[in-house]
Amino acid sequence: LCTREVAVAFRSTALDEAARLMRSRHVGCLVVVDETADGRVVVGLLTDRDIVTAVVAKGVDAATLRVGEVMTEDVATVREDDSLHDVLATMQRRRVRRVPVTAAQQRLVGVIAADDLLRHLAGELQTLAQVIGDALAATNRVGMGDSRRMELAEAYWSAAGQLWPRLERQV
């Protein structure tokens, strides 16, 4: 579910350059990383809101600042083996809409957004609604015996029971 091709910046990147990168990549944030022998390590997050509140609202020239001066350093991250339920809980607890996905030692592997989760959950709920609709339509048919109703009820509960484990799926 996470996006593996991530727009990144470095602390030393000029803020106006970072803003242009966000515009050209059509993203609302850049993951700020340090390059290490093990890969790119997450050290911060720069959002469009960070730029607005720190630069535009204060009338500061973005060309005079570096990403490291404006970025959020206390970044919420999730691990690539976290469940969707854990990702949602982290987003809610930290009140964020996007989180970097990391492997060992905070190595960047992707980004997941609330919109990604909503699209996935909408698909799961649509499938469940279809199963419920099919079961209701079948129970309204004339002449359905009790054993068939029991089969449909079991099919419904089976489908409904599969929704939660899908939330436990890894990002």
Core attributes:
171 residues; alpha/beta; three-stranded mixed sheet; elongated
Task: Describe the protein's architecture and organization.
This protein has 171 residues and is α/β, with parallel strands linked by helices. The chain has helices at 15-25, 48-56, 67-70, 84-94, 114-139, 146-167, and strands at residues 8-9, 29-36, 39-47, 78-79, 98-102, 108-113. The strands form two sheets. A three-stranded mixed beta sheet has the order 1-2-3. It has a three-stranded mixed beta sheet with strand order 4-5-6. Helix 5 packs antiparallel against helix 6 (146-167). The protein starts with 7 loop residues before the first strand and ends with a helix. The model has no long low-confidence stretch (mean pLDDT 86).
Percent of residues in beta strands: 15-25%
**Mean pLDDT, all residues:** 86
* Neighbour order of strands in the largest sheet: 1-2-3
Low-confidence stretches: none
The number of helical segments is 6
Structural class: alpha/beta
Distance between the termini: 5 Å
Strand tally is: 6
Q: What overall geometry do the principal axes of the alpha carbons give?
A: elongated
Helix content, binned percent: 40-55%
Radius of gyration: 22 Å
